[in-house]
């Protein structure tokens, strides 16, 4: 069984979506329900997706990220996936979304590359 968590936090106009664990298609519907219920809080704001504690996500969740990026960018706001581990970056690459999704590597990865 794949288990993961998501948490949407809105504080002082900053919207952060934290993804952790292992996320698969079974949690996408519930996530969409949360997004819809809280749309007034996050829609029209920049969105940072923090994946520092994410170990795995499947293609359904990659589509969620791409759709969120499109929605946020259409309102003229910024979107970024932060703290991407080498394993998750490899998943992005294997699925062909690394060039379509705005993301930044985890700090340790950045320091290693410097």
Description:
40% of the residues lie in helices and 33% in strands. The model is unreliable at 109-114 (pLDDT under 50). Strand 4, helix 4 and strand 5 form a beta-alpha-beta unit. It has five helices and five strands; from the N terminus they run ββααβαβαβα. It has one domain: Transcription Regulator spoIIAA (2-Layer Sandwich), CATH 3.30.750.24. The chain has helices at 28-37, 39-42, 59-74, 86-94, 107-113, and strands at residues 4-11, 14-23, 47-57, 79-84, 103-105. It has a five-stranded mixed β-sheet with strand order 1-2-3-4-5.
Q: Assembly type of the shown chains?
A: single chain
H/E topology pattern = EEHHEHEHEH
Portion of residues within helices: 40-55%
Output the number of helix runs.
Answer: 5
How many domains in all? 1
Q: What's the CATH class label?
A: Alpha Beta
Instruction: Point out poorly predicted stretches.
Output: 109-114
Shape: globular
Whole-angstrom Rg: 14 Å
Mean pLDDT: 90
